[in-house]
Amino acid sequence: MKRFYISAKTDEISKGLNNKLKDALFNNDWIEDEKSPEIVFTIGGDGTFLHAVHKYLNQLSKINFVGIHTGTLGFYTDYEAEEIDQLIQDVLFKQPKIEAIRMLKIETKNGKLKKGLYALNEARIENIIKTQTIHVYINDEYLEMFRGNGLCVSAQAGSTAYNRSINGAVMSMGIEGLQITEISGIHHRASRSLGSPLIVSSNSNIVFKNDTFSNAVLCYDYKHTSLDEMTEITIKLSNKKVKIARFRPTSYIRRLQSLF
Fold first, then answer.
1. pLDDT tens-digit profile of 231-256?
2. Are strands 122-126 and 217-220 parallel, antiparallel or unpaired?
3. Tens of pLDDT along 182-226?
4. From CA 18, how far away is CA 43, in angstroms rounded?
5. Which among 198, 177, 178, 194 is positioned nearest to 186, based on CA atoms?
6. What is the chain's mean pLDDT, rounded?
7. Cα-flanking dihedrals φ and ψ of residue 130, to 5°?
8. 219 — phi, psi (to 5°)?
9. Is residue 151 within 8 Å of residue 166, measured between CB atoms?
10. 111 CB neighbour count, 10 Å cutoff
11. Which of 152, 164, 71 is CA-nearest to residue 119?
């Protein structure tokens, strides 16, 4: 007997898969428990998966996630829509391998107050109103003064998401680190920064400072918050982990091929 919850998109295909999966689990004496599930199924895309992760942010150590993609294969999903029968058989009769992915921890400070946030894909500072100046520190050592639209920080799992769209490096499975990628950096004689993605070790502490981040926004996964009145943002890998139940091996190269 297991407790489960299904987070599904509202399109017809996803709703049909939701009903079929739910009926199969009920017929095998599983219990639907939205408040305290042991396993959470997501039906949709990687965005649906991220919404479910944030929904259960304070219960991650007790939950395994399984994703069904109703489009193309996603990085957090192992099954496509037409494989729903295989998923049901695997979940009912196989023991999965658990892949644990560390989340990013983001702390924003205004000199007095500190607020902690978490992200699985990336955290980025963006300012589309004016040029944003950011002083970058890594492990308390000053790296550079960046000027441009912003900076993005991702770990391995998020390197194929927004980071890739701004020409960041794709980090292969097994590499645990943090990547800083520029968003529309300004490069001329009066303003220079590294200008290329930088990958640092998994125990690194990245700090962005400035006298003001007025008009800038902190985007983390699908969420965002204003950085008005903030003067410092710290990003590092946290001990909070998302556990994905893998019932079958899926080639990382195949996942990459689904991107292009």
1. 999 999 999 999 999 999 888 888 88
2. antiparallel
3. 999 999 888 889 999 999 999 999 999 999 999 999 999 999 999
4. 7
5. 194
6. 94
7. -150, 170
8. -105, 130
9. no
10. 9
11. 152
Residue keyed to tokens 């998994």? 202
Q: What is the distance between the alpha carbons of residues 222 and 147, in angstroms, rounded to a whole number?
A: 24
Q: From the CB of residue 260, how many other CB atoms can be counted at a distance below 10 Å?
A: 5
Buried b (16+ CB within 10 A) or exposed e, 72-99: ebbbbbbbbeeebeebbebbeeeebeeb
Q: Is 139 left (phi over 0), alpha (psi -120 to 50) or beta?
A: left
Residues with active-site annotation: 46
Residue 151: how many other CB atoms lie within 10 Å: 24
pTM of this structure: 0.93
Tell me how far the alpha carbon of residue 33 is from its chain's centroid: 24
Nearest 5°: phi and psi at 14?
-65, -40
